[in-house]
Each structure stands twice: as structure tokens, then as C-alpha cells.
Amino acid sequence: MIAKETTKEATKEQMLEVKDLFVEYQTDLETIKAVNGVSFSLAKGETLGLVGETGAGKTTTALALMRLLPERTGKIKQGDILINGSSVLKSSDKELMRLRGETIAMIFQDPMTSLNPVLTIGDQISESISLHNSQGRTAEQIQLRVDEVLNMVGIPSARKGEYPHQFSGGMRQRVVIAIAMACEPDLLIADEPTTALDVTIQAQVLMMIRNLRDRLGMSLIMITHDLGIVAQTCDNVAVMYAGELVEVGSARDIFKAAHHHPYTDGLFGSIPKLRERVKRLKPISGLMPDPTRLPTGCYFSPRCPLCADICRERKPDVFAKDGHKIKCHLRINADGYIKDEVRS
Amino acid sequence: MTTQTPLVKTTGLKKYFNVSKKLLHAVDDIDLEIFPGKTLGVVGESGCGKSTLGRVILRLLEPTSGDIFYDGENITKYRGSRLKEIRAQMQIIFQDPYSSLNPRMSVAEIIAEYMIVNHVYKRKTEAFSQAAKLMDLVGLARRYANLYPHELDGGRRQRIGVARALSLNPSFIVCDEPVSALDVSIQAQILNLLMDLQENIGLTYMFITHDLSVVRHISDDIMVMYLGQCVERARADELFDNPLHPYTKALLSAIPEPDIDARNKEIQIIRGEVTSPINPPAGCRFAPRCESATEKCATEAVELVDRGEGHFVACAKMD
């Protein structure tokens, strides 16, 4: 699916394009189909929310963008990834090194495991600056840049000689963000950046990511399972299920439109409401399908409350209306939604 | 169901831990009452002492001072067989459905274990047939009985934890973040299960969580904890509609709402982080982060005061 192309947005420069991406993990025993035909694009300065549950393929998609899939098992089977117009799949190792860190940076969920416990945080930040030292900074200038980056994320630069264990969870995540920001990337991928943090600290970190994004004009992919974070930070949203994008649209489409993919409805039914009291939640029955044995037809059909015969037999097409796309057979007669020819 | 004696009650409950010659105030002077068939939600950030509180009430940890009452009886000093008896009536469901189940025991063995240990039945086979009934009750297919925990997903594992907690017919269950490790759709299934069980068997819960939308959904009353102390306690709806303590207000405002119209709502971001619970200062423990704190707040202890209709707040600025 190609993201929204209204007249206003068509003029925007696309910094990232993912075309029909398939990723598999192959082991001697089985083949796990992690990503099954994902297409989306991201404009400069845009924020895309990638939403889905554990095992939906969100992180695999992100790793594929940076060609960081595990070498032996992870394979990109099909599709293409274009960053600023050039294909990542055809890049040499040297080009990839520049891509990682300089063009794209990533923040991981757990700040403790993504930092090196035996290096001071100052060393860890300066490492990425000196590795991508295209401006030819001297050692002194690099240290100045480290101070600058630390100030940017709200850590006093006097603490740069300390080790990760001396920081709290929220502060560690700020350090991770500082490393990601050090080379001013064009695209930041935040993979569940606040899941390990308390709500008040989460609010601080999210606010900081938003401010940095706006100030530096970065594009942002926010991977999360929290629809609250999506509502508060994202321009566009892609809902992922069993390696596919089942619904794509602007944040307004996802939260306000009359029609949704049944999975999206299920996600909303599952979260307790803050403002009103519902007697009973409406969870999605069953579990995510086994990625080694995906069902025929629509992958969501075994759990779908609206499942019809056609859903079990044939893969659904994408139906779109003003850039709001739903991959579901039952949208055929929905008002204004027409088959999306780009994708079929 | 409408007896006036609370099923669980604590007065002045304290639990301090000794850490390198200092005292860590994990639970500091907690008074609470939970009535039969009701749910008390306990919310707070990591390190606020909510799990310790749950464990002290179950007598899994010895309280430093204070009393615990179960159904009117003071159980603080119970030992031996009397403690064992009372413990059968109070159970716990743990947060992590991975580490709380013995990987070397099958599902049926895990569920039957408490019944076998407590000699509930004369023969083991009876315990196993009761385990099968419990599996039906929590919605686990009987075909899983001989599988091991690692063969099941998180949601099903948590159902094992629920079945095990129910095996001795308890009246009171401490749910310690039972859904935090689960995906939203599975989380909703477990929450529904817990609420159905409460309705059908009349269970009483203490529900510990950091997730505020979950706590509103499941609780009758809510207690907000900060650094071992209760800062606010009220009926669930009252607390959400009319939060009075600055910490509760900030906590509620910090939740990202799944509503696009709330995007531009003003978020009160509290400065800094939770201060150390080791030898805390005399005054209000939230004072270092509080926007409206005065000098008085930092030095004078605050009392939990009823502000009307059972809405308790501990804030000096309320006077």
C-alpha cells in the first residue's frame, strides 16, 4: 500500500518507500513468514505509527529497512526498499554503514540491553559521531558535540563520564536517544521506546522525541502497541497483523472513520476506556496465527467475528477511499471504498 | 455480600528493608479496607511499594509494624498450621506468566500442586480431576493438561496462574500486574475472565497495576501510592473525575489517550524522577517534584485526610 497521495502531499518529498516487502526467517526446521507483502511510504518530516501486537512483524520490518536482519536466518524474499531514491537492497557494505546511524537511527525498547555496560555514556555517544565523521571534526569538537547532544536530551553534560548503571531507566532511554540523534538522522525508528518506562517518565520521553522531531525535521516511524501513543504523536498509521498491513490511513482515519478493518475494531474494543466505564471489554477471540502455517485466505479470518466464506478462500484486496486503505473482503460495498489498483 | 466487616484490613502497616545500614521505606503506614466481593486497585510507578504491600498482606513478607486483619481476625502474628490455613484463603496471581510457572511441571501438575501439598483430597487422582474442572473454569481446553508451560502462549499461561490461584477456593486474591506482560487483545480476555470469576464466585481482589485505564476498568476503589505511602484513595469514578492530589493529577494527565481529539490536551509533565525511598525526608515525599510545593511541604509530614465521601487525600495544600 502506498501512503496517502492527496494533492497536498504529492508534492512532499518521499524519503522512504517500501514496495511489496516479504521477509522470512529460515531455519532447518521451519520457515517463519514474518513480513508478507508490506508497502508504505514516508515523507520528509512525517510520522508513521506502526501498530500491532507481539509477532505482527513490526520490528522485522524496521530491521529490514536497515538491513539488520540476522544474517543466517533472515531473508528478504521479495520487494524493494528505497531510501532517498536509492535501493537499500543493492547497497554495498560501505554504503550500509553510512546508512545506519547517519541516515537512519533506531531506538530500541529496552534501554539497559542496548547500552554497553562497560563504556561511559560519553564514549558511547562519541563513538557514533567519530564513526560518521564526514565533517572532519577534531577530538575536541567531537566532545563539544557530545555535550551538545546530551543537553538536547536533558542530561547535564557533566554526567558524560558515568556508566549506564548509574542512570535510571528514563535517563538511560535519553542516552539511547542521544546516540541516535548524534548524527542528525533523516529517519528515526523508535521501536516501543517507552514500553519499559513508567507513565510519567513516558510522558517526558515522548514529549522530547516529538520536540526533537519537529526541531530537526526528521521523519519518524513509531513502532508501538499503544493506541494512545499513536493518537498523540502520529500523522499516519499502519496497522499490522500477521506480517501484513491490514489498515493504513491518517490518524484521523484510524480513530474517526466509519469503516475499519475488523482487527482494528478488535484492538479498540480490547482497551479499557479512560473516560467512560464499559461493563465488559470485547477482546478478539483466539490468538495470532502461527507464522509457519498461515491460514489460506485472509490471515485474520480465524479470529474475525464477521468472517464469511470468501474470507477463508481468497486473499482480500485493498479497498481505499481518500487514502484510507482497508484490506478486507467485506469493504467491497462500503460507501466510497473502491478497489486499490496500485496494489493488486 | 453486604456485611460491614471488611474482608481485608490493614492498620498502620509498615515494611522497611535494611539496606547497607539504612532503611528502605517500601511500605509506610498503609491503612486500607477491602470489602467482600469488591476490588481495590493499587496504582503507582515502579518502586512505589505496591507489590511489597501485596506480599505483606499475604504474609509472604513480615511486616515491620502494623496489623493485618482477615475477616475480622488479626493474622499478623499467625504461625504454623493457623498461618497455613489462612494462606489457603488468600492467593496471588503474578505478573510474569513465564517465570511464575515451574517449567518442569505439566499444566495439570501445576494446577493440582497446591491441592496435593495441602492434602485437600485423599487421593492424587481427585486433585487432578479437580484441576481439570478448574481448567474448564478459566477457559483452558483440557487437551493442554499434559503440556508444559513453554508450549503455551502468555495468555494461556496466565490462565494457568489463575486456575492455580483458585485451586484452594480462596476468597481473596492479590493480582500483581496480571496483564502487564500480555498483548492488548489477550489482556482483555484475562480481564474479562477475572471479572467473570468475581461475579460468579464472589472473589475479592487487590489489583496491583501501573496501568491506569486497566485499574479504572476493574476497580471499585483505587489507592494511589507514591514512595511507600498512600497519597490518595477514593471510589474509582470519583478518583478519575475529581483527582485532588497533584501526583494523581499528573499521573492521569500523563496517560496518552487513544483519542485523536485529545491530542492537544495540556499534559502536566512532572519534573524529575522518583526520589530514593532510603531514609526519606520527613515532609511530603512528592514535594521535590510537585509544582505547588511550598517550604512547609518539604518539612512537615502530611496526613491522609477524608475530603468527603471517603475521598482521602494526603496533601498539605488542601487546607
Care to describe what's here?
The complex is a heterodimer of chains A (344) and B (319). With 344 residues, chain A is of the alpha/beta class. Chain A contains eleven helices and 13 strands. In chain A, the strands form two sheets. Chain A has a nine-stranded mixed beta sheet with strand order 6-7-8-3-9-10-12-11-13, sandwiched between helices. In chain A, strands 2-1-4-5 form a four-stranded antiparallel beta sheet, covered by helices on one side. In chain A, strand 9 (236-241) and strand 10 form a beta hairpin. The longest helix of chain A has 18 residues, at 199-216. Mean pLDDT of chain A is 89; it is low at 1-11. Chain B has 319 residues and is an alpha/beta fold. Chain B has a single domain (8-318), classed as P-loop containing nucleotide triphosphate hydrolases (Rossmann fold, 3-Layer(aba) Sandwich), CATH 3.40.50.300. The radius of gyration of chain B is 21 Å and the shape is globular. In chain B, the strands form two sheets. Chain B has an eight-stranded mixed beta sheet with strand order 6-7-8-3-9-10-12-11, with helices on both faces. In chain B, strands 2-1-4-5 form a four-stranded antiparallel beta sheet. Chain A binds chain B through residues 53-54, 168, 170-171, 198-204, 206-207, 225-233, 251-252, 255-256, 266-275, 277-278, 280-285, 287, and chain B through 45-46, 153, 155, 183-189, 191-192, 195, 210, 212-214, 216-218, 236-237, 240, 250-251, 253-260, 262-263, 267, 269-270, 273.
Indicate the CATH class of chain A.
Answer: Alpha Beta
Please tell me how large the radius of gyration of chain A is. Answer: 21 Å
Instruction: Please give the alpha-carbon distance between the first and last residues of chain B.
Output: 37 Å
Give a count of the beta strands of chain A, DSSP E runs of length 2 or more: 13
Ranges of chain A where pLDDT stays below 50 over 5 or more residues in a row are: 1-11
Strand content of chain A: 15-25%
Class derived from helix and strand content of chain B? alpha/beta
Name the assembly state.
heterodimer
Query: How far is the first residue's CA from the last residue's CA of chain A?
Result: 10 Å
Rg of chain B to the nearest angstrom? 21 Å
CATH topology type of chain A:
Rossmann fold
Overall pLDDT score of chain B = 91
